[in-house]
Amino acid sequence: MSDEDELLRIEGIRKTFPGVVALDGVDFDLRRGEVHVLLGENGAGKSTLIKMLSGAYHPDGGRVLVDGEEVRIRGAQDAERLGIATIYQEFNLVPDLTVAENVFLGRQPRRFGMVDRKRMEADAAVLLERVGLDVSPRARVRELGVARLQMVEIAKALSLDACVLIMDEPTAVLTTEEVEKLFAIVRRLREDGVGIVFITHHLEEIAALGDRVTVIRDGQSVGQVPASTPEEELVRLMVGRSIEQQYPRRRPDAGEALLAVEGLTRDGVFHDVSFEVRAGEVVGIAGLVGAGRTEVVRAVFGADPYDKGAVKVSGTPVPRHDVNAAMTAGVGLVPEDRKGQGLVLDASVEENLGLVTLRGATRGGFVDLKGQRANAARVAEQLGVRMAGLGQSVRTLSGGNQQKVVIGKWLLADTKVLILDEPTRGIDVGAKVEIYELINELTAAGAAVLMISSDLPEVLGMSDRVIVMAQGRIAGELPAAEATQDAVMALAVSTPHTTTTGTEATGGR
Ligand SMILES: Nc1ncnc2c1ncn2[C@@H]1O[C@H](COP(=O)(O)OP(=O)(O)OP(=O)(O)O)[C@@H](O)[C@H]1O
Ligand SMILES: [Mg+2]
Q: What are the domain boundaries of the chain?
C-alpha cells in the first residue's frame, strides 16, 4: 500500500459522556477502494466512532487525519467538504419532502434565484439510476419502505461525491434480496475507489463483502484482521470468549393452549389465520417480507382491528382492537419498530422497563417504586444492558441496548403470551444468546412465545413449530424436526389460496 491509498486515519480517539467512557483509544484507518468492517458488541462504541467522522460528536482526545492531514470536523458541513458521507443507524431523511428534495437538501440547484426543480429532478434521476432505485424523484419519502430509504441515502452520498462512505448497520432492516442489491452497489463504489466503513452484526456478511475488520471492545480497538478470518475467531475477538451454542433450545413439555387464534381475517391484509401456542412452547412465524406476519400479530395484540375471527387467551376471548384488554389478559408484544412503538426515548432505562408493570401497580392505587427499581436492575443485568445507570435516558443508549430494554420491559410484566417481532435485529451475537436464554426461561416458567423473524437460522434454531405465511395466509406448519431452510422457503414462496403451488425462487431470510 502506498500512502496515497490512505483516505483516513484515526489515532487514539477518546470520547466520554457523563458516566460512560464510550471511546478509550481507538485506532482505525481506511484505504481507497476497500470495505473496512467495524465489529463490536452492542455499546462497544461503533456508532460513537463514526459520529466523530460526520461531525455529530467531537473527540475529547486523539487525532483524525484525512489524506494525511490532521483535521477537525466540527459539523456536517466540514464532513461534507472532506468528502465523508454517513448513513446512520436511524435515517436522516425528511418524510414530507420528495426524493429529489432529500437528495439535494440544502444544495438545490438554482436558476434566477429559484430552486431549479427540473434540473434537480433530472440530476436525482441519474443518481437513482446509479443505485438502481426504481422510484420517481417526485415520490414523497414518507411513502418508501426502509430498503428504498436506504437507497435514497446512498444516492444522497453519491451526489456529494463522497470518497468516504460510512454505513451504520445498513443491512439490519433488509431482506436477503435487498441485501444483495446493496452489496452490488457497495462493490461498484469500491471499484470506483470509494472507501467504505461498514458496521454489521451479521457475521456472514463480513467475508462476503469486507476487506479488513477492526474489532472494538469496550471503547478500545482490540484488533485488526482480514475479513476472511473465521467467524469463531471474530466472535472471540469481539466478546472476549467463544460462544458454544448459538441456539440453546431447552423446552418443557407443552401444556394447555395459552393463545388461540381462530380464523382471523382482515380484508385485503390477512385471511383465515388460525393457530395455537401452548404453554412452554415457542412458535416461529416465517415468511417473506409482506407476507402479513407483523399485521397478524398486531391484530392479536389489539393494536390493529380485524374483520372476522377470534383471539383467545386461556380459552377466554379477548376483545378486538383493544391493547389494554390484551395486556390485561397477559399478552405482550415486542414490536418490530422499537423506536416508534416500543420506547419512550426521553425517559430513563428504569422508567421504560417499568412501563408495563407501572400500569398494573398504579391501578392498585400506589406505585412500589423500590420494587420497580430492584426489578429493573435485575432485568438490565440479566440482559447485559450497557448503560451509565438506570437513570440514563434511553435515547442515548446504543441501538442494540435500546432493543434489550424493549424486551426487558415485557419480561418484567409477567407476560403469559409474549409476541416477539424481529427480536434480535441489531443485537450482537453474544447478546442474542442471552435473549434466547431468556426465551428458555420464559417457556420454562410456562409462558407461550410467538416469534416472527426473518433470520431463518434463528427461527429454525429456536422454534418448536414453524408457521409459514405467504400472501396473508398460512401456507403451512412444520414441526421443528421437519423445518429445514428449504422446506420453509418452499412454503414461503407458495401461493396458498389457489391449488397451484408456486415454484418461483425468491430469497428471504
Ligand atoms: N449522547 C450520549 N450520551 C450518553 N451516552 C452515550 C451517548 N451516545 C452514546 N453513549 C454511550 O456510549 C456507548 C457506546 O455507544 P454506541 O452507540 O457507540 O455503541 P454501538 O457500538 O454503536 O452499539 P450498537 O451495536 O448497539 O449500535 C454506550 O454505552 C452508549 O450508551
Ligand atoms: Mg450503533
A: 3-239, 243-330+415-509, 338-414
